[in-house]
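Example record for the data management plan.
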Amino acid sequence: MKILGIESSCDETAASVVEDGRKMLSNVVASQIDIHAVYGGVVPEIASRAHTEAICGVVENALLQAETTIDEIDAIAVTNAPGLIGALLTGLSFAKGLAFSTGKELVPVHHIRGHVAANYLVHEDLKPPFVALVVSGGHTSLMRVKDYTDYELIGCARDDAAGEAFDKCARVLGLPYPGGAAMDKLASVGDANKYKFTAGSVDGAEYDFTFSGLKTSVINLVHTELQRGRVMDDEFRADVAASFTAALIKTINTRLELLLSREGAMNIVLAGGVAANSHLRRAVSETADKFGAKLYLPPLKLCGDNAAMIASQGYFEYLKGVRGGTDLNAFATKSV
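Corresponding structural encoding:
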């Protein structure tokens, strides 16, 4: 069964063809990084317009790359939540029109489930149940995946997500957008013990995450040091990046270790854009080894937003009987 996936939840216009949920036949992504770099972050209206301009060509290229025609596609999977509402509506509207005009069935896919499904494309032995840790620009979630379409949220970010905190701290350090890769590189050469940053906890919700205080601590430190005459040199940036990264990852690992200590060894899936961070990958791997758990990591090319993950999850949603009609709507926020 061939599924055409369409993704447009933020600033990547993507389309992909995946066979039987596991075999990626194509994966085309049109990035908007250069467009938004001028503003230091994603501008929703500009993102929506860019999706509109790119989506036809991206879908056409995905079909060509897969050596597949639309007639050979069994269903169309599309991200309908969560994300930037205008961006979501662009991809969703295109998918609905394509499905209606070709007589194909439409399958709505939750973006976070898609990130988890990216691992199905490279790990043939991965099957539920397992625990998923999704760390991205807009989400930081710890979930129990009971079946391919049955998710239980264990903990989530109450304010800034990890990726958002990375970008905001990168901005105050004068790093280019997106800041994740630059922060990763700097943290590798900086002194993680130079500054004592800590992330908060949520009273009564021990598995939830909060990074706004950590982000604010970094911003206040940088502003204070600059006011004292400190030069924003490479050493200062590296030490701040390393200290911030260590605090953020410790916060994530604390929740994961708590779960493993209570429930024992289990399969763990890491996913999301921040799953590309080398420090996070290493830390989670060490935690998995410590508790005798098996860890599944996505390749770097599938960490960020892409449509292959949507097509993969769409396959399992299709088998479950999930369908969408011409009245299918998009949602900026939606529980997994």
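Summary line stored alongside the record: The chain has two domains: 2-119+302-320, 128-297.
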